[in-house]
Design brief:
Elements: H1 2-33, E1 49-53, E2 60-65, E3 71-81, E4 91-100, E5 107-118, E6 121-132, H2 153-165, H3 170-200
Antiparallel strand pairs: 1-2, 2-3, 3-4, 4-5, 5-6
Length: 202
Protein backbone atom coordinates (compact mmCIF):
# COMPACT_ATOMS: atom_id res chain seq x y z
CA UNK A 1 0.00 0.00 0.00
CA UNK A 2 2.78 2.43 0.95
CA UNK A 3 4.61 1.64 -2.30
CA UNK A 4 1.45 2.31 -4.30
CA UNK A 5 1.03 5.70 -2.60
CA UNK A 6 4.65 6.61 -3.34
CA UNK A 7 4.22 5.64 -6.99
CA UNK A 8 1.00 7.65 -7.22
CA UNK A 9 2.67 10.69 -5.66
CA UNK A 10 5.60 10.34 -8.03
CA UNK A 11 3.24 10.09 -11.00
CA UNK A 12 1.29 13.17 -9.94
CA UNK A 13 4.52 15.13 -9.53
CA UNK A 14 5.63 14.10 -13.02
CA UNK A 15 2.31 15.33 -14.43
CA UNK A 16 2.68 18.66 -12.59
CA UNK A 17 6.25 19.06 -13.86
CA UNK A 18 5.12 18.28 -17.40
CA UNK A 19 2.33 20.85 -17.21
CA UNK A 20 4.72 23.48 -15.87
CA UNK A 21 7.24 22.61 -18.58
CA UNK A 22 4.56 23.05 -21.25
CA UNK A 23 3.69 26.48 -19.86
CA UNK A 24 7.34 27.53 -19.79
CA UNK A 25 7.86 26.39 -23.39
CA UNK A 26 4.74 28.25 -24.48
CA UNK A 27 5.86 31.45 -22.75
CA UNK A 28 9.36 31.19 -24.26
CA UNK A 29 7.90 30.69 -27.73
CA UNK A 30 5.60 33.67 -27.29
CA UNK A 31 8.39 35.97 -26.09
CA UNK A 32 10.75 34.97 -28.89
CA UNK A 33 8.11 35.45 -31.58
CA UNK A 34 6.69 38.74 -30.32
CA UNK A 35 8.02 42.25 -30.81
CA UNK A 36 6.47 44.28 -27.99
CA UNK A 37 8.47 47.40 -28.80
CA UNK A 38 7.58 47.56 -32.49
CA UNK A 39 6.93 51.10 -33.62
CA UNK A 40 8.77 52.73 -30.75
CA UNK A 41 11.58 55.13 -31.52
CA UNK A 42 14.94 53.39 -30.98
CA UNK A 43 17.03 56.54 -30.64
CA UNK A 44 20.81 56.67 -30.88
CA UNK A 45 23.84 56.59 -28.58
CA UNK A 46 25.36 59.54 -30.40
CA UNK A 47 28.87 59.97 -29.03
CA UNK A 48 28.20 57.75 -26.03
CA UNK A 49 29.39 54.15 -25.83
CA UNK A 50 28.14 51.24 -23.74
CA UNK A 51 30.75 51.12 -20.98
CA UNK A 52 29.19 48.36 -18.85
CA UNK A 53 26.43 45.84 -19.48
CA UNK A 54 26.37 42.50 -17.67
CA UNK A 55 23.69 39.88 -18.42
CA UNK A 56 23.22 39.45 -14.66
CA UNK A 57 22.95 43.15 -13.85
CA UNK A 58 19.90 45.39 -14.08
CA UNK A 59 21.85 48.54 -14.82
CA UNK A 60 23.84 49.70 -17.84
CA UNK A 61 26.52 52.40 -17.95
CA UNK A 62 26.96 54.70 -20.95
CA UNK A 63 29.97 57.01 -21.23
CA UNK A 64 31.37 59.73 -23.47
CA UNK A 65 34.35 62.07 -23.43
CA UNK A 66 33.94 65.61 -24.67
CA UNK A 67 36.52 67.62 -26.62
CA UNK A 68 37.04 69.68 -23.46
CA UNK A 69 38.25 66.56 -21.65
CA UNK A 70 35.11 66.34 -19.53
CA UNK A 71 33.66 62.86 -19.00
CA UNK A 72 29.94 62.14 -18.84
CA UNK A 73 28.71 58.83 -17.46
CA UNK A 74 25.10 57.66 -17.35
CA UNK A 75 24.12 54.72 -15.17
CA UNK A 76 20.54 53.62 -15.87
CA UNK A 77 18.13 50.88 -14.87
CA UNK A 78 14.39 50.30 -15.20
CA UNK A 79 11.97 51.29 -12.48
CA UNK A 80 8.77 49.44 -11.53
CA UNK A 81 6.05 48.81 -14.15
CA UNK A 82 3.34 51.39 -14.69
CA UNK A 83 0.32 49.69 -16.23
CA UNK A 84 -1.83 52.83 -16.12
CA UNK A 85 -0.49 54.14 -19.42
CA UNK A 86 -0.97 52.79 -22.94
CA UNK A 87 2.57 53.53 -24.06
CA UNK A 88 4.97 50.93 -25.50
CA UNK A 89 7.44 51.33 -22.64
CA UNK A 90 5.56 50.84 -19.39
CA UNK A 91 8.59 51.43 -17.22
CA UNK A 92 10.50 54.62 -16.59
CA UNK A 93 14.25 54.46 -16.19
CA UNK A 94 16.18 55.76 -13.20
CA UNK A 95 19.45 57.34 -14.32
CA UNK A 96 22.43 58.86 -12.55
CA UNK A 97 24.29 61.30 -14.77
CA UNK A 98 27.80 62.19 -13.61
CA UNK A 99 29.95 64.94 -15.11
CA UNK A 100 33.65 65.06 -14.28
CA UNK A 101 36.16 67.73 -15.29
CA UNK A 102 39.68 66.56 -16.11
CA UNK A 103 41.40 68.72 -13.49
CA UNK A 104 39.02 67.97 -10.60
CA UNK A 105 38.46 64.87 -8.48
CA UNK A 106 34.92 66.04 -7.71
CA UNK A 107 31.89 65.16 -9.81
CA UNK A 108 28.54 66.77 -10.49
CA UNK A 109 25.83 64.13 -10.20
CA UNK A 110 22.22 64.37 -11.33
CA UNK A 111 19.53 61.89 -10.32
CA UNK A 112 17.09 61.69 -13.23
CA UNK A 113 14.09 59.83 -14.53
CA UNK A 114 13.67 58.95 -18.19
CA UNK A 115 10.13 58.40 -19.41
CA UNK A 116 8.24 57.96 -22.67
CA UNK A 117 6.05 60.83 -23.85
CA UNK A 118 4.58 59.15 -26.94
CA UNK A 119 5.60 56.53 -29.50
CA UNK A 120 8.14 58.88 -31.08
CA UNK A 121 9.74 60.66 -28.17
CA UNK A 122 10.83 60.53 -24.55
CA UNK A 123 11.92 63.02 -21.94
CA UNK A 124 13.95 63.23 -18.75
CA UNK A 125 13.40 65.04 -15.52
CA UNK A 126 15.85 65.86 -12.76
CA UNK A 127 15.11 64.76 -9.19
CA UNK A 128 18.34 65.94 -7.61
CA UNK A 129 21.69 67.59 -8.31
CA UNK A 130 24.75 67.03 -6.12
CA UNK A 131 28.30 68.28 -6.10
CA UNK A 132 30.31 65.40 -4.67
CA UNK A 133 33.90 65.17 -3.61
CA UNK A 134 35.01 61.60 -4.36
CA UNK A 135 36.59 61.13 -0.91
CA UNK A 136 33.50 62.42 0.90
CA UNK A 137 30.67 61.03 -1.22
CA UNK A 138 30.06 58.06 1.10
CA UNK A 139 29.66 60.19 4.24
CA UNK A 140 25.88 60.07 4.90
CA UNK A 141 25.71 63.30 6.92
CA UNK A 142 27.31 65.55 4.30
CA UNK A 143 25.10 68.29 2.85
CA UNK A 144 24.46 67.52 -0.81
CA UNK A 145 22.23 70.43 -1.69
CA UNK A 146 18.56 71.45 -1.60
CA UNK A 147 15.63 69.52 -2.98
CA UNK A 148 15.69 70.06 -6.71
CA UNK A 149 11.98 70.87 -6.80
CA UNK A 150 12.61 73.77 -4.40
CA UNK A 151 15.09 75.48 -6.70
CA UNK A 152 14.05 78.52 -8.71
CA UNK A 153 12.37 77.33 -11.91
CA UNK A 154 14.89 79.21 -14.07
CA UNK A 155 17.74 77.45 -12.30
CA UNK A 156 16.00 74.09 -12.80
CA UNK A 157 15.65 74.83 -16.51
CA UNK A 158 19.29 75.94 -16.74
CA UNK A 159 20.53 72.73 -15.12
CA UNK A 160 18.46 70.67 -17.53
CA UNK A 161 19.87 72.63 -20.47
CA UNK A 162 23.34 71.95 -19.06
CA UNK A 163 22.69 68.20 -19.28
CA UNK A 164 21.25 68.54 -22.77
CA UNK A 165 24.47 70.30 -23.81
CA UNK A 166 26.39 67.24 -22.55
CA UNK A 167 24.41 64.95 -24.85
CA UNK A 168 21.45 63.98 -22.64
CA UNK A 169 18.82 64.64 -25.28
CA UNK A 170 15.79 62.95 -26.78
CA UNK A 171 17.81 60.65 -29.03
CA UNK A 172 19.74 59.27 -26.06
CA UNK A 173 16.70 58.94 -23.78
CA UNK A 174 14.87 57.07 -26.56
CA UNK A 175 17.86 54.75 -26.87
CA UNK A 176 18.07 54.18 -23.10
CA UNK A 177 14.40 53.18 -22.81
CA UNK A 178 14.56 50.87 -25.83
CA UNK A 179 17.86 49.32 -24.75
CA UNK A 180 16.80 48.69 -21.15
CA UNK A 181 13.42 47.21 -22.10
CA UNK A 182 15.08 44.89 -24.61
CA UNK A 183 17.60 43.90 -21.96
CA UNK A 184 14.84 43.15 -19.44
CA UNK A 185 12.98 41.03 -22.01
CA UNK A 186 16.13 39.02 -22.77
CA UNK A 187 16.73 38.49 -19.06
CA UNK A 188 13.13 37.29 -18.66
CA UNK A 189 13.55 34.78 -21.52
CA UNK A 190 16.81 33.54 -19.97
CA UNK A 191 15.00 33.10 -16.65
CA UNK A 192 12.29 31.05 -18.38
CA UNK A 193 14.94 28.92 -20.10
CA UNK A 194 16.65 28.20 -16.78
CA UNK A 195 13.34 26.90 -15.46
CA UNK A 196 12.92 24.80 -18.57
CA UNK A 197 16.43 23.34 -18.20
CA UNK A 198 15.80 22.56 -14.54
CA UNK A 199 12.62 20.61 -15.26
CA UNK A 200 14.16 18.63 -18.11
CA UNK A 201 17.07 17.43 -15.97
CA UNK A 202 16.70 13.90 -14.62
Amino acid sequence: MAKSVRNLTKGLKAIEDLELLKLLKSEISFELSSNPFQGAETGSLGEFVVDYDSPRSKDVVFRRKLDSGEEVAVSAQLGPPNYDNDLVFQRNAFAKVCVKKPSFSSILQFDCQVYQVDDRSSEFSIDGAYYLRSSMSLIPSIYKGPFFSELDSKLQDALKEYLISKGIGTSLTNFILHYLHNKEQQQYVNWLKKGEDFLTKN
